[in-house]
Automatic annotation (TrEMBL):
Signal peptide limits: 1-23
Top-level division of the source organism's lineage: Bacteria
Protein's recorded name: Membrane protein
One Pfam family cited in the UniProt record for this chain: LolA_2
Record keywords, A-Z: Signal
UniProt cross-references to SUPFAM superfamilies, sorted A to Z: Prokaryotic lipoproteins and lipoprotein localization factors
Organism of provenance: Prevotella lacticifex
């Protein structure tokens, strides 16, 4: 007859094995998704829709190339060259220059998750409506993004990202992903793009 201690040991071992296997599967899904996006080394574009307490509801277009992006939505344009970000707001006719953290970048670049999931997060996964839903949970409480849910198709294209910063949730839905060549100059802000706008440097 199997003793109680041995039964408990088996149960704990199964739980640990299942959790590890699940995390490895989630990592594999994100690795494959990152590889799919990386194939667009010359550039890609997509449509997005964002909703959340801090952003209301808005939609727009995004162009990406490596860690650079250019996003547009009604009244707002964002350039990011991989280091510096310029945000033009038409209502104030101002361009704000910043070096944003992960949460700030992801609020306008839903593909940011491909550069942060490899360290600092625990990963788990479940199947939802025929797609993968990967749950990223920050290991350190000071991380700007504490939780991220990434929904990925069976072909490894992300379709939805839900992220939590503090107590607020933001949802970004992605569609019409298309690979095509995009010039490097697309991701660099030029004053001629916003004539007369005030430049506010917060770096």
């Amino acid at each position: 007859m199997i003793g109680m201690k041995k039964i408990l040991f088996i149960i704990i071992a199964v739980i640990i094995w299942t959790g590890t296997a699940n995390a490895q599967t989630a990592r594999d899904v994100l690795d494959r998704t990152a590889a799919t996006i990386a194939r667009a080394r010359n550039g890609a574009s997509a449509s997005f829709r964002i909703s959340g307490q801090s952003y209301g509801n808005a939609s727009g277009q995004i162009a990406i190339k490596g860690n650079r992006f250019y996003a547009t939505s009604p009244g707002v344009k964002v350039w990011n060259d991989g280091k510096t970000q310029w945000t033009f707001t038409s209502s104030t006719n101002e361009v704000t220059v910043t070096k944003p953290n992960d949460a700030q970048q992801m609020s306008v670049n839903p593909y940011k998750f491909i550069s942060i999931y490899k360290s600092g997060y625990r990963l788990s996964m479940r199947n939802v409506a025929g797609q993968y839903e990967v749950h990223m949970t920050a290991i350190h409480p000071a991380r700007s993004l504490q939780e991220v849910y990434v929904t990925v198709t069976r072909n490894y294209y992300p379709t939805k990202i839900r992220m939590r910063r503090g107590k607020g949730w933001t949802t970004i839905t992605i569609s019409n992903f298309r690979i095509h060549k995009i010039a490097d100059s697309t991701f660099q802000f030029k004053k001629s793009a916003c004539p007369g706008a005030e430049i506010i440097d917060l770096r």
